[in-house]
Amino acid sequence: MPGQGNINGNGKIIAAAQQFAGPIPHPEIFRQYGEVVPDAPERILGVFEKDSQHTRDIQMAALNAEVARDSRTCSMDVFYYNARCARDYGFCCKMWKHCFWYHC
Asked: Can you give the residue range of the structural domain that contains 79?
């Protein structure tokens, strides 16, 4: 752990290094926080949990906005496709008089 070294039989200091990566402190350091401030581990975990929830909420809101945008885009595509088909069909009917309302 940080600040710890061992002295071997010859009086030489042997250094040790540890590395830890994660969203919360290394368990040994985490325990030491609790020795200094009794409720520190619970408070640190509480902050971590709230931050994690906030991140998930933001990602979900972005995903919902993207889905809504895609739905609107798809609806507009269908509308324009149908309008174009109706326009083209009407044009063909007038040109060749094959439309059902001309046969009345």
From this structure: 25-99
User: Does position 104 have pLDDT exceeding 50, yes or no?
Assistant: no
pLDDT, position 84: 74
What span, in angstroms and rounded, lies between the C-alpha atoms of 91 and 85? 10
Does residue 68 lie in a domain region?
Answer: yes
| Cβ atoms of 48 and 54 closer than 8 Å | no
The model scores a pTM over 0.70: no
CA dist., res. 67 & res. 25, Å (int): 37
Look at residue 55 in the predicted model and tell me its pLDDT: 93
What is the rounded average pLDDT of the residues 57-86?
Answer: 79
The Cα diameter of the chain in Å comes to 114
In whole angstroms, how far apart are CA 6 and each of 13, 26, 72, 90, 102?
A: 6, 20, 67, 91, 102
**Is residue 95 included in any domain, yes or no?**
yes
The encoded tokens of residue 93 equal: 């009917």
